[in-house]
Specification:
By secondary structure, the protein is an alpha+beta fold. Helices cover about 20% and strands about 30% of the residues. It has 13 helices and 40 strands. Strands 6, 7, 8, 9, 11, 12, 14, 15, 19 and 20 form a 10-stranded antiparallel beta sheet that branches. The chain has an 8-stranded parallel beta barrel with strand order 21-22-23-26-27-28-29-30, surrounded by 4 helices. Strand 7 and strand 8 form a beta hairpin. The structure holds alpha-D-galactopyranose. Alpha-D-galactopyranose binds next to loops.
Length: about 775
């Protein structure tokens, strides 16, 4: 709901309010963002900043407003040059060389429909609600003939306020836009913790929490894509915030490029929290009559801790970011050829793999890198999107037909932004890649990047990829394995080179739009060396992303748990791979590998033809289990019960109707003498009766052989001695499950091993299925 009274604007969601007003000189003064409140008659004036006199060294805005300092005003935006010394929201360079500017309120309008940007990915309109968007028009105060629009869209159901910004040049002179951010919130104090998620290849999403007082904290990337170095999702919380209580704000950008999130504590300990395109390396020549639009920022607030904030984002992403036929549809279980074969395959080997996968219940076969041009390794052929007939004599079409005949779907890998110097494409069009003319080029994974600023390149790729995707393709893994270096577009004039990074993305988005419109049935998965492009921009085109190239169950548990702060697990591709794991050489039980993957989108990435019969049986059982789970887990509510404290994880999903639930737990390393384990759920109906049962699975107890008579094996040389895991099976009321908890069977203590002992050793998991019996 949006209300307006005497130039005070109040945007309300189910549990939050966002309030600002037009102050007397015409700036927008931020009054409140947080718990929902009722302004009443005196509310706005009570929250308005008092300006009785200015502290020394602050700047008075104008002779007519001697007590107004831009540095002390909590602004909805901030500019340079009028006394605000904080991080600016907007930075413009005019043709006279000056950078001072000042935007004042001009008018407002409530729009019935949220505007949809045609060039950038953006959130869908909030359902049928009319009047969901407030548009504020501001004019540059000193005759520059610039108009700034601020948009605020209210998503009541998931407590989200969406902000975006547009600048229009109504003058006759060009203006250089050095920065135009997406959101800014000025808080009264800086007693907050800034949380960002940083990492590197195979090590994504490390959670870092830093107190804000007295600092400028920045989470940013300059790689050209949103990147694993710093995901665009960040949080700002009160120090006492926990999973279930306390105040926390979140922000994410609907953008896949360089971004910057900043929490800056300033004069009088205030805190400015701003998000948007990374200004470093960016500039935009805004010609007369042109407009520039900044990406949308997704803001949310929870007074019930991190858990609630995450569920707000999960609902928002599922309802307003994902689109197309796959948005809410359970995804097929896939097998990917990469870790099974790398570049070393031919048609026969692939069909073998697909056949064994099909027997296990897998539904989609994905052919990864190596199928095109003369590709044998990473050194060649990127850009030549034509089949390698030496490896695949019947072409992609022939392979796809054979896979379809087995009763499976067929998927393929591409990396359209990259080009190898050793490729027909590069030989034909050396000027189609990003490069500084006459300078040596730096390559990444032996590739350059195509110049996505050039519409001819986009057109070429559109047609080349249409040919590939028309060969019976049901799924596409869209990869991107390098950042932007040598950032220079041969297509753009020299005064527009600062636009290259952003225009590269506009080119990418236009290509994705055309391809996803042309192939609405194809399921697309975003990948960028794992999680280098795990962002809301890509999720507008592709309803899932490959979360990390690291498929080690232990690492994955941490990575996935941390993604879950800002993204639903139902958009994460999660694969069971072989042991020793290819990234860490660690060996984890197959039950663990499955149970870590099961809350995400399940896939297998191993040579299934080499598995023992008992492992194949386990996989068949896993897939049967997952096929029931995936029907409700796509839209479920996630509860993080333990997030790695002392090596313990416990996550729980509960269906929206609270009829079904699942809990998974993981232990990193066994610590002898650990306290009694209690399984306490969250999110179930207190008054309803539920059945909770542990998922049956087999364990390898070979290390215990010889010590316990109960353990025997028909084959003394076998690497495995199998024993079923302990069973937990209860019918209990939700209040007992939520607030009392189940005392689980006691852990192995060195003495006995039987069905009443939990053999919960290093890297073990457990999985509990819950179903409502009666209300
Ligand atoms: C990237 C991806 C992997 C795989 C390889 C193929 O590293 O993240 O999953 O597709 O490329 O080259």
């Amino acid at each position: 709901m949006i209300t307006h009274h005497n130039h005070v604007f109040c945007l309300s969601t189910a549990c939050t309010s966002y309030v600002f007003r037009v102050e007397e000189a015409g700036h927008l003064e931020h009054l409140h963002y947080g718990k929902r409140l009722c302004l009443g008659t005196d509310g706005a004036s009570a929250m308005t900043q008092r300006h009785s006199s200015l502290p020394s060294a602050t700047i008075a805005y104008s002779p007519g407003t001697p007590n107004l300092s831009m540095e002390l005003l909590r602004g909805e935006i901030s500019t340079l040059g009028k006394g605000d010394f904080g991080d600016p929201f907007i930075d413009l360079e005019f043709s006279d060389g000056s950078r001072t500017c000042d935007f004042l309120f001009d008018s407002w309008e409530i729009l019935n429909e949220k505007p949809m940007n045609k060039e950038l990915p953006c959130a869908l309109s909030p359902g049928q609600a009319r009047g969901n968007t407030l548009r504020i028009r501001m004019k540059e105060a000193n005759g520059r003939k610039l108009v700034l629009y601020l948009y605020y869209t209210v998503y009541e159901d998931c407590d989200v306020i969406l902000r975006s910004t547009r600048l229009e040049n109504h003058g006759t002179e060009p203006v250089i836009v050095r920065r135009l951010l997406s959101s800014q919130i000025d808080f009264d104090d800086s007693d907050y913790i800034f949380t960002n998620f940083h990492g590197s290849w195979t090590s994504e999403m490390h959670k870092s929490m830093t107190p804000c007082t007295g600092k400028t904290l920045v989470s940013e990337t300059r790689l050209g894509f949103s990147s694993n170095r710093s995901n665009p999702f960040v949080m700002l919380s009160r120090p006492c915030c926990t999973e279930t209580s306390g105040e926390v704000y979140g922000s994410n950008l609907i953008y896949s490029g360089n971004h910057r999130e900043c929490a800056q504590s300033g004069e009088l300990s205030r805190l400015r929290f701003s998000t948007g395109i990374q200004p470093e390396g960016f500039s935009w020549l805004l010609k007369p009559k042109d407009r520039f639009t900044a990406p949308e920022a997704v803001l949310s607030f929870s007074s019930e801790g991190f858990g609630r904030l995450s569920r707000n984002y999960h609902d928002f992403i599922r309802n307003y970011i994902l689109r197309g036929i796959w948005a809410h549809r359970p995804r097929p279980v896939l097998i990917n050829s990469w870790e099974a074969a790398y570049f070393d395959f031919d048609e026969e080997k692939l069909l073998h793999l697909a056949g064994a996968a099909h027997d296990a219940g897998i539904e989609l076969f994905v052919l990864d890198d190596g199928w095109f041009g003369k590709r044998k390794n990473t050194k060649t052929s990127m850009g030549d999107w034509v089949c390698n007939y030496e490896k695949l004599p019947h072409g992609i079409e022939g392979l796809s037909a054979r896979i379809h005949n087995m009763g499976m779907q067929f998927g393929i890998w591409v990396e359209p932004e990259a080009v190898s110097v050793d490729s027909d494409l590069f030989r034909a069009h050396p000027d189609w890649s990003l490069a500084v003319p006459g300078q040596p080029n730096s390559e990444g994974r032996n590739t350059r990047l195509l110049d996505f600023c050039n519409p001819e390149v986009i057109d070429y790729l559109y047609h080349a990829l249409c040919r590939v995707f028309s060969c019976g393709v049901d799924y596409v893994k869209w990869d991107m394995n390098r950042g932007i270096s040598d950032c220079y577009s041969p297509f753009l004039p020299k005064e527009q080179q600062g636009e290259t990074g952003h225009r590269f993305l506009l080119g990418l988005y236009s290509l994705l739009k055309r391809l996803t419109d042309r192939f609405p049935d194809i399921l697309f998965e975003s990948c960028a060396s794992g999680g280098n492009r795990a962002d809301l921009g890509m999720l507008c085109y592709m309803p899932q992303f490959w979360a990390s190239d690291n498929s080690d169950a232990l690492c994955r548990q941490q990575i996935q748990t941390n993604y879950s702060y800002g993204y639903p697990l139902s958009v994460l591709g999660c694969h069971v791979s072989s042991i020793p794991n290819h990234q860490t050489l660690r060996e984890t039980p197959i039950a663990t590998r499955y149970e870590v993957a099961a809350f995400g989108i399940l896939g297998y990435e191993l040579d299934i033809c080499r598995l023992r019969a008992d492992e194949l049986e386990d996989i068949q059982e896993q897939i049967r289990h997952y096929k029931k789970l995936r029907n409700w887990i796509m839209d479920a509510d996630l509860y993080r019960i333990q997030t790695g404290e002392n090596g313990h994880y416990c996550l729980m999903e509960v269906s929206k109707d609270q009829l079904t639930g699942a809990v998974m737990t993981l232990q990193e390393l066994l610590q002898p003498g650990s306290p009694i384990r209690i399984l306490k759920t969250r999110g179930l109906k207190d008054n309803a009766l539920y059945h909770l049962v542990s998922r049956p699975a087999m364990m390898n107890v070979k290390p215990m052989k010889g010590r316990f008579a109960s353990l025997s094996s028909d084959d003394p040389a076998a690497g495995f001695v199998r024993m079923p895991r302990e069973t937990e099976d209860y019918t209990l009321y939700g209040d007992l499950l939520n607030h009392g908890g189940i005392r689980l069977k006691s852990d192995f203590n060195g003495h006995n091993l039987d069905e009443d002992t939990r053999y919960y050793i290093d890297y073990s998991t457990r999985f509990y299925d819950i179903e409502l019996v009666k209300e």
